[in-house]
Amino acid sequence: MKVKYFAWVRERIGKAEETIEPPADVRTVDDLIGWLTAQGEAYAYAFEKPKVIRAAIDHAHVKADATIAGAREIAFFPPMTGG
Amino acid sequence: MTVSATIRIQEADFDVAREIAALSQGRTDVGAVVSFSGICRGAEQGEPIAALTLEHYPDMAEAEIQRHADDALARWPLQGLTVIHRFGRIEPGQNIVLVVTASAHRQAAFEAAEFLMDYLKTNAPFWKREESARGTNWIEAQDHDDVAAARWTKS
Q1: What are the Cα distances from residue A9, in Å, to A45, A51, B6, B41, B47?
Q2: How far, in Å, are A25, A32, A54, A62, B150 from residue A65 at the CA level?
Q3: For a tag site, which of B19, B43, B49, B96 has the least CB within 10 Å?
Q4: CB distance A3 to A18 below 8 Å
């Protein structure tokens, strides 16, 4: 699946997007944050406060317990500050 | 007649007067037009800023604004609706966002415009970064914006 990062999450990880293949026991958004956090210091820094991080699956907001099965694109970003 | 929203996400500036006119010109069923313009302030928390840079998630911004525009059209009897949100570098005094609503009577136009702005603030995937003498900083989300958006949730 494709993962996209925005704003300071993108800056901390050091890339805007990547393709990942997490293991099968990574089932929810929360699981995925946990798995990404273990992928290196940059990820651990980006996800150091997981409760602050917002997520979207295929362009729609989702909660941390949402399942990632079948997702084409998952995005992680800080709370939005548009408008 | 089915009303559809005009939604534009663009780097370029927009002309507020022209967008207002586009919803009312040449028709006699519109009795009220409300417009909200969001403009870049010259200071954030008392500190002067040189500019804001807005990052966005293009595909999702389009989808998210469309969802809320459709929601507004379902909740209020609107004759027209325009939402424009800019991205990129924006200097103090320049436009950031525009919501224009048109309806037969004022209440629907006022309420729908406020509803859309409250949701754009908290749900549209845009992030502001400020440039100042101290460098660049991501602007933090405000709790009062979440409170403002929550009051429109149907109970």
Answers
A1: 9, 13, 31, 25, 25
A2: 14, 10, 12, 8, 21
A3: B43
A4: yes
pLDDT tens readout for residues B4-32: 999 999 999 999 999 999 999 999 999 99
Indicate the helix (H) or strand (E) that contains A47: none
Contact A6, B127 (CB under 8 A): yes
pLDDT 10s digits, A34-60? 999 999 999 999 999 999 999 999 999
Measured CA to CA, the distance from residue A26 to residue A9 in angstroms comes to 20
DSSP class of A65: T
Q: Do B60 and A60 touch (CB under 8 A)?
A: yes
Do B119 and B62 form a contact (C-beta atoms < 8 A)? Answer: no
ipTM rounded to 2 decimals:
0.95
Distance from CA of B134 to the nearest CA of A (A): 17
Residues of B in contact with A78 (CB under 8 A): 127, 138, 141
pTM for this predicted structure:
0.94
Interface contact B141-A78, CB threshold 8 A:
yes
Residue B78 and residue B72 in contact, taking contact as beta carbons nearer than 8 Å: yes
Q: Would residue A14 be called left, alpha or beta, if left means φ above 0 and alpha means ψ between -120 and 50 degrees?
A: left
- What is the Cα–Cα distance from A29 to B105, expressed in whole angstroms? 44
